Amino acid sequence: MTASQSMPPSCCLLGTAWTASGTPTGRIGTLASKNAYIADADRTRAVLPIPDLLGWSFPNTRLLADAYAASAACTVYIPDFFDGEVLSFAPVLQDRWDELDVPDFVQRNGRDVREPEIFACARALKGEEGFERVGVVGFCYGGWAAFTLGARAFNDGGERLVDCVSVGNPSLLTEEDVDGVGVPVQVLAPEHDPVYKVELRKRTFEVGLRAGVPFEYQHFSGRRACVFREVG
Fold it and tell me: Which parts of the chain register pLDDT below 70?
């Protein structure tokens, strides 16, 4: 990712109806030695959201975890993959981007740094936590991680690392990530996204059709990705 693709506009802070007055109801625990927000429900099914750059503490993200737990009867874990570092919400809400160093934040939390920790959390769900089935949801930054966890290399033959993945306007995604998918996958893609470019979308669609797993691609006409945009 380049610095010219790193400024999120305030629309990424807009959510559904619960955001104005909702209060997260989950608890703080740990997963693979990482602090995690946990929305408890059924102990056989787990969902691992990998959030965007606003991280595990963003209220909308926690409210979404609560909604997943309630509607899908699953336990949801949102680990702190940024080791306590949080992008300040106020500058984002007020478009004060000069107060944020987003490119540096992305560099400090790149794939080479966070991938081992993300894999450790995924493994812990079926390992130490004893869940039977695990789904992964990756939003923007988390998109590459969801595809990687769902790779054929980790889910071929016997026991799967994860059982399905869903991504929304994925970033940091490579052709190799797309080509390797080996579990059911859902992709939610706005029409306008400077990071998830048309060529990679086409490849995603083509690979999904011949990957031999359930595949869903939803294209949102007229919509724009709101966590990254080209600037300067």
Answer: 1-21, 92-93, 95, 97, 226-232
Total residues belonging to the chain: 232
Q: What residues have CB less than 8 Å from 191, skipping those under 6 apart?
A: 219, 220, 221, 222, 223, 224
Q: How many CA atoms lie within 13 A of 16 on its CB side?
A: 6
Kindly report the CATH number that applies to the domain delimited by 3-17+28-224: 3.40.50.1820
Rounded to 10°, the helix 142-149/111-126 angle is 50
The pLDDT assigned to 98 comes to 81
Q: pLDDT (tens digit, 9 = 90+) per residue, 35-61?
A: 999 999 999 999 999 998 889 999 989
Q: 42: closest CA among 76, 13, 8, 17?
A: 76
Q: Which of 100, 98, 108, 38 is nearest to 68 (CA)?
A: 38
Q: What's the whole-number average pLDDT of the chain?
A: 87
Q: What are φ and ψ of residue 108, in 5° steps?
A: -65, -20
Domain ranges in the chain are: 3-17+28-224
Burial bucket for residue 218 (CB in 10 Å: 0-12, 13-18, 19+): exposed
CA–CA gap between residue 100 and residue 85 (Å, rounded): 12
